TrEMBL record:
It holds the Pfam family Glyco_hydro38C2. Keywords: Signal. This is Uncharacterized protein. It comes from the Bacteria. One of its GO terms (molecular function) is alpha-mannosidase activity. Residues 1-33 form the signal peptide. SUPFAM superfamilies: Galactose mutarotase-like, Glycoside hydrolase/deacetylase. Residues 813-877 form the Glycosyl hydrolases family 38 C-terminal domain. Residues 47-319 form the Glycoside hydrolase family 38 N-terminal domain. InterPro entries: Gal_mutarotase_sf_dom, GH38_C, Glyco_hydro/deAcase_b/a-brl, Glyco_hydro_38_N, Glyco_hydro_38_N_sf. It comes from Aquisphaera giovannonii. GO terms for biological process: mannose metabolic process; oligosaccharide catabolic process.
Length: 886
């Protein structure tokens, strides 16, 4: 995003005629060790690689459909320019670097065979360089499989062209979730050309890492990528138009001042604005400079060429950095909380749908349709939310049209994910099957790799209320206790559902089966929810959860000294915490009183809302408290959304209390201790997490899960920076040890790109699970189980066998994805070291056993045969290709 679109900085340097002698004098540099002595006044022997590209904003400058056409045309222009300069001196020949593969994907789908052939030839000749990322993604928003799919297109295009893709570019975006390294490594990416915005809302990103290349190690420590941020990030050519002697003098002087120790550097050249066309002037500028100056030498290249040259010379001298590069721009996703939630659920549902296709009809898996749906998910998480004027002019057609397109990605992914689930279940009811659809039966599928005992919700349309169809029987004909909720849905707890399999339950006329004698039931009385395993107390004055007590764990797990209660609503305008407001006096009522589910609803007036409803519930036999908060958001009316009174923030407090407890935060891949596991320059005002946060001491703790809202603030409401922030020192510098979490669910703090306001009902769901000694793998299973619940569907076809497709023997390793391979011949299994410790596991398959198991990666290809136990590193991902029998 170009700052100049919003702020009149006027920061472009005009081409100037500067005497060559003055340039040479300014270029004088101290000789580097190993270079030998330099004559006084001689220029430094520096080779500077220049990487031409166009920064892809899908929107922002123009509506998305116009950007699609523009970036396809940019590829055509890039190919033509490379051909035209093929006879230029080496180093001045044009190379078009396709920043993200979305443009190449469009090109190949929209243009004719002749142009496709021209494109493939250009890639093979090195005239066009492809890069690993599909989009300039807000990686902190990604689910695990979503993050891996970000690089899937690269593996397919590498196959198509025959040219490996070993580099990824990302532009504009400052900061990247730690698992990005894992995802890149799974796709064969070795080089990460990160080039953030050069000035705005980037915290310490450039201050810490500009021209300081390093290896970034993955959460497992088993992989690494070379990271290199150039001068001014991606936007240097927004500020200058050519390699003038004045610029070269200033650039090399800046390297000297920073004690840059290398004789290879690189620069981005992204044209003269966002979504810019290829700039032919850079070839002329490089050709002229190199002809007139001995040093420094400029060389137009691909990212891979520059990084390979640098690594060959300096790779063994570079530092290895380990930790989360906590990103800065994910906070804007809270400006569209509904769609952000929708997209998270769509990603989880797609993951579950792929598992269901693996179990039910792997040969019929619609690979292309799933690929399109995953791309919708990625397009929503892409960094361009809307128009450059989205805050200053929120109502004009440019802003409104871009938001309609952006929101359609999340809506489309949601619709497709539901369709895939419906379609695969329909495959079970084919002509000739022994059993027809059974309207009184429900099939329950467990898409997880561990045995599940959990709540099953049967919508009232599948369990007729008028006929009192409340009686539930399991697959052996035994009665299962059930309950009709106040809203009409029927619920029961499915016990010990085997992994990766299904069971059939019969719903028949008659009353619900009673709970076993002496068994614990869920109840609600006097503002207290109890299920025999834990208690939660609702404060009658605030409606927050003032106490959570668990059997076997002493004390209140909510910190009474924090000044807040769990699930307390906090709202403020501007950036002054003195103006924080809470919900009004609550109306509290019991809506369900067991025996399976006990639920209390708290209705309140609340600032910024038409209404606020918080539902808190417990479930018999399950060790968690669930909260579902419906915020019916009122549109903030403001004369200016740039003014403090036009800014708002909505939060829910979760002050936890575990004596001596330490916090661990889940990421899409890996987990971090705040401050300890964040690299220098990482964002600390807010952190986008995966599914859970945990506070534990060695004996006990509590896991907090968030299903809809990814952003957390730690210890304080620190997400208070408004509009353009250009000084690194204004950002939070440290996170002190804390057990207090604030879920940051809505804001409009940006000055561009994101939404100025939002309105309408949005649900934010959370859960608290007390536990014994800390177990990250158990935390992962708990939180994943909430966002990937047991799937209930109208029974069709033969009764599910209840036999797992396979089981994972060994603790601490979870299957995070199971899908049919795109070529239709195998299953793809992703194992995740969720315990954080290296483990060895076996997969035990139900007959017929697979033909062969291979280690694989994002390519889905067989890489090396896997025979015997599988080593899974802590916080690492292992991808297997398992060839189906027959």
């Amino acid at each position: 995003m170009s700052i100049g679109k919003t702020f009149a900085l006027g920061a472009r340097t005009r081409a100037a005629a500067v005497l060559a002698a003055l340039a040479t004098l300014a270029l004088a540099a101290t000789a580097r060790a190993g270079d030998g002595p330099s004559a006084p006044g001689s220029p430094r022997k520096l080779t500077v690689y220049i990487v031409p590209h166009s920064h892809t904003d899908i929107g922002y400058t123009e509506v998305q459909t116009q950007i699609e056409r523009k970036q396809v045309d940019n590829l055509l222009q890039g190919i033509a320019l490379a051909k035209r300069t093929a006879g230029y001196p080496e180093g001045s020949r044009f190379v078009w670097n396709v920043e993200v593969l979305w443009a190449a994907d469009l090109f190949l789908h929209r243009l004719g065979e002749a142009q496709k052939a021209e494109f493939l030839d250009a890639v093979r000749r090195g005239h066009v360089a492809l890069h690993g990322m599909y989009l300039n993604e807000l990686t902190g928003l990604c689910r695990t499989e979503e993050l891996l799919r970000l690089f899937r297109e690269a593996t397919k295009l590498a196959d198509l062209t025959g040219v490996p893709i070993d580099a990824a570019m990302i532009s504009d975006v400052p900061g990247y979730t730690w698992g990005t390294v894992t995802a890149m490594s799974q796709a064969g990416i070795r080089y990460f050309a990160a080039a953030p915005n050069y000035i705005d809302r980037i915290g310490g990103t450039l201050q810490k890492w500009e021209n300081r290349p390093f290896y970034w190690a993955s959460p497992s420590g088993k992989e690494k990528v070379l990271v290199w941020i150039p001068t001014k990030g991606y936007a240097l050519s927004h500020l200058i138009h050519e390699l003038s002697p004045k610029f070269v003098a200033e650039y090399t002087a800046d390297l000297e001042k920073a004690a840059y120790p290398y004789d290879i550097a690189y620069l981005r050249w992204s044209g003269h604005g966002d979504n810019a066309t290829p700039d032919p002037g850079i070839c002329e500028s490089v050709k002229k400079w190199n002809a007139e100056h001995e040093w420094p030498k400029f060389r137009i290249s691909s990212t891979s060429e520059a990084f390979r040259a640098f690594e060959a010379r300096y790779g063994d001298k570079l530092p290895v950095v380990r930790g989360d590069w906590t990103p800065y721009w994910e906070d804007g996703a809270a400006s569209s909380a509904l769609e952000t939630s929708l997209n998270r659920w769509a990603a989880d549902r797609l993951t579950q749908a792929e598992t269901l296709w693996s179990l039910i009809d792997p040969a019929g898996y619609p690979a292309r349709a799933f690929d399109a749906a995953w791309k919708d998910v990625l397009l929503y998480s892409e960094h361009t939310w809307g128009a450059h004027c989205s805050i200053t002019e929120p109502s004009i057609p440019l802003t409104q049209d871009q938001w309609r397109m952006k929101s359609s990605y999340a809506a489309g992914a949601d619709i497709r994910s539901r369709e895939f689930v419906d379609q695969v279940f329909a495959r079970r009811a084919r002509p000739g099957d022994d059993e027809a659809a059974l309207s009184s039966d429900v099939d329950v599928y467990n898409t997880s790799s561990w045995t599940r005992t959990d709540l099953v919700v049967v919508p009232k349309i599948l369990s007729t209320v008028s006929n009192r169809m409340d009686r539930v029987l399991d697959d052996r004909g035994r009665p299962v206790p059930s309950q009709r909720l106040s809203g009409g849905d029927l619920v029961f707890v499915a016990t010990d559902v085997p992994p990766l399999s299904g069971r059939r339950y019969t719903i028949s006329p008659g009353p619900a089966a009673p709970m076993p004698a002496g068994g614990a039931v869920a109840s609600a009385k006097d503002g207290v929810l109890d299920n025999g395993l834990l208690q939660a107390r609702i404060d009658p004055h605030s409606g927050g959860v003032s106490e959570v007590h668990a059997r076997g764990i002493g004390g209140n797990l909510v910190d009474p000294s924090s000044g807040h209660q769990a699930n307390e609503y906090l709202y403020f305008n501007g950036d002054d915490l003195k103006g924080v407001k809470t919900a009004g006096a609550p109306t509290i009522k019991v809506v369900d009183d067991g025996p399976i589910v006990a639920a209390i609803v708290v209705d309140s007036a609340a600032p910024g809302c038409h209404s606020l409803r918080r539902e808190v519930r417990v479930i018999a036999g399950l060790d968690r408290v669930e909260m579902a908060n419906t915020v019916d958001k009122k549109r903030l009316e403001a004369a200016s959304y740039m003014a403090k009174e036009g800014k708002e923030s909505v939060n829910f407090a979760f002050p936890l209390h575990v004596p001596g407890g330490k916090m661990l935060l889940d990421l899409p891949v890996g987990a971090i201790r705040p401050e300890v596991d964040q690299i220098p320059g990482a964002c600390k005002n807010d952190i986008p997490i995966g599914r859970w946060a945990d506070v534990s001491n060695p004996a006990a703790g509590v896991t907090w899960a968030t299903l809809d809202a990814p952003l957390v603030q730690l210890g304080e409401l620190s997400g208070r920076l408004l509009n353009s922030i250009q000084k690194p020192e204004l950002w939070r510098q440290t996170i002190e040890p804390t057990q207090h979490l604030y879920s940051w669910v809505m804001n409009n703090h940006w000055h561009t790109n994101y939404r100025a306001y939002q309105e309408g009902p949005v649900i934010f769901r959370y859960a608290l699970r007390p536990h014994g000694s800390p177990d990250p793998a158990a935390a992962s299973r708990f939180a994943t189980g909430l966002s990937q619940p047991l799937v209930a569907t109208l029974a069709r076809g033969p009764r599910p066998t209840g036999m797992p497709l396979f089981t994972v023997s060994g603790e601490g390793v979870n299957v995070v994805a199971l899908k049919p391979s795109d070529d239709g011949k195998a299953w793809i299994v992703r194992l995740y070291g969720a315990s954080g410790e290296d483990r060895t596991v076996d997969l035990k398959w139900t007959d017929p056993a697979p033909r062969k198991t291979w280690l694989s990666n994002t390519t889905e290809k067989p890489l090396s045969e896997q025979d015997g136990p599988i080593a899974v590193p802590g916080w690492g991902i292992v991808t297997l290709r398992v060839e189906r029998a027959g």
